[in-house]
Write a structure and sequence with these properties.
The structure is a homodimer of 326-residue chains.
Chain A lengths: L6 E12 L4 E5 L10 E3 L8 H13 L6 E7 L21 E10 L12 E4 L12 H17 L3 H10 L12 H10 L4 H10 L5 H12 L7 H15 L16 H12 L5 H11 L2 E8 L7 E6 L21
Parallel strand pairs in A: 1-5
Antiparallel strand pairs in A: 1-2, 1-3, 2-6, 4-5, 7-8
Helix pairs in contact in A: 4-7, 5-6
Chain B binds a DNA duplex (30 and 30 nucleotides) through helix 9.
Pfam families (chains A, B): WHD_NrtR (PF21906)
Organism (chains A, B): Candidatus Phycosocius bacilliformis
Protein name (chains A, B): NrtR DNA-binding winged helix domain-containing protein
Chain lengths: 326, 326
Amino acid sequence: MSTRPRVIIGLSAVVVAASEKGPEVLLSGGAGATGLPFGSFDPVGHRTFELAVRDFVTAQTGYALGYVEQLYTFGDKGREAPLADMGPAGGGDGDRVVSVGYIALAGSIGEGQRRAGIWADWYRFFPWEDRRRENGLETAANLVRDLQAWATTSDQKSRVAMAFGLAGQIWQDSQVLDRYELLYEAGLVTEALRDRARDHVGLNQAAQAATLRASGGEAMVSDHRRILATAMGRLRAKIRYRPIVFDLAPDRFTLSGLQDLVEVLCGVRLHKQNFRRTLERSGLVEPTGVMHAETGGRPAMLFTRSPSSRQSGAPGLTLPLARRQD
Amino acid sequence: MSTRPRVIIGLSAVVVAASEKGPEVLLSGGAGATGLPFGSFDPVGHRTFELAVRDFVTAQTGYALGYVEQLYTFGDKGREAPLADMGPAGGGDGDRVVSVGYIALAGSIGEGQRRAGIWADWYRFFPWEDRRRENGLETAANLVRDLQAWATTSDQKSRVAMAFGLAGQIWQDSQVLDRYELLYEAGLVTEALRDRARDHVGLNQAAQAATLRASGGEAMVSDHRRILATAMGRLRAKIRYRPIVFDLAPDRFTLSGLQDLVEVLCGVRLHKQNFRRTLERSGLVEPTGVMHAETGGRPAMLFTRSPSSRQSGAPGLTLPLARRQD
DNA sequence: AACACTAATGCTCAATATGAGTATTAGTGT
DNA sequence: ACACTAATACTCATATTGAGCATTAGTGTT
């Protein structure tokens, strides 16, 4: 073997589960620094990446994954994971770390069940992505102000407008990564400062970081927030063309419950009656005949996903966005 | 450094261009065995994968790439690239090759211009994907027959039905990879036999290969046909949500020309009047005022892509499929 | 037992979008 | 002047979508 620097494949997993409170992601148990579960790929022991991901997530959290999908492979120099964190198989100095991101859906947990590991609401890291309440809208508005101050070229201005749904454009909930990357470029997220500081120290980092904390969301280790953004975007987009929500929903659910789930994932409000209409027409769900009467209103029919929704190639949900809040 | 087997990152690029004859992909100049241009990633010299891809494609073919996008990272043991082909940076035995696939659009070439490198119609490798003419439909029908003979579990049967648009399902032009993987699993493409032969030799390969050649399409080195399938699927899907066709079309085009391009890429026929209607309404194109009179019929207006179509986040084309052939 | 309250479910209606044609029209070549 | 060809213009029925009002079946209260 030569003495040439090696390439090390780091695998990161965004494990998503949905509780009543909202979408939650599994964090690695690192002390202090927040990051996703990750491990390095063993070229001898692992036959495929996917198996490796399943392995180390189970090993680290005791949780067996259901749906798993590859997201993106990040190889940028300067944004890579710190080698020290790479675990037992981690390499030496001068090695290049390439990280392959995965998204996994952990299914819904039942009543009393408690999942292993540390779970966190993903909007902690992306407060501006939750447009269901005023808070998120305000955060977004603040960031837009800062971004507009930063944008000088017309391309930058147009990117801001498209990403944040300005000037007649509509907010695309799946453009999570575009928005995050803009914030990174503009130096409005902590990671940007951190990565720049590696090369040239000079700016008053402490002061800036304090300002950032407010609307820029919580930072993550390495490029993990970027991977999380990719996962959120992929999930939000995929809901529309594959019946993937059902992997996050309980076995039996009410249509309102399903709607809540979609709303929480996509961070938007939907029109209730129209949501129900498209769902019933889609053939993806079927009534169980059993009612659910625990909301204080009229009891709701419990539905299950239909067999046809399990066929590979089955379509997703069309989401009727609601303009007005009711 | 340890003596642990290394990981080598192979980069493969599907470089697509469209000529009058159809979509063409750039092949690497290997003697005999057909494959995509590829190179190995240099952990020291290359800052990002994308730059590395641009570099080696230019080096190998003299062609500067426009649009470049990452596809997927393949790491399965047993389907990886032969190490001998990996170029100057290629490693020794026992190393694990991980291949990162990219798609790049090379733009339209003008009249007399000749592109460097060897270009081939991509339907050579996927004859069943061209449903514009009888030939492709027949090939698909043949393969479906073989697949149905192979499918035993109900899951396999349903996958075949969904992928090939059987039993009320509709043919999804972007499911190229699903179809190829089914054919691979069923042993109906040459690569499957080749890869199996590595482990256990035993089947009469020569005889089988001869039968395959007919409808299974031309084989490629390593897992390159899988990467090509991924690229075709991604491109076909992306046409619908990003104005990406314009990166393959000439600067000025007629609507019929643009339609031909889309048809050839997606392998389907479109309804002419409706295509024109959605295009004009979309605001993605604008008339130049100049006419084009070389078809023998009424002269056509030449269009260009509009400035708004260049904004990041601009939508794609909605494709009105034509049932009947006219 | 009647009443208010709440959420679920049902139904309507206008505005678009889509699929499938038929009808003109402006060039080219004879 | 005439046939031919492809481009462009319209038409029409049928979904699909966005928005909203109306009714209903439970729960808890007076």
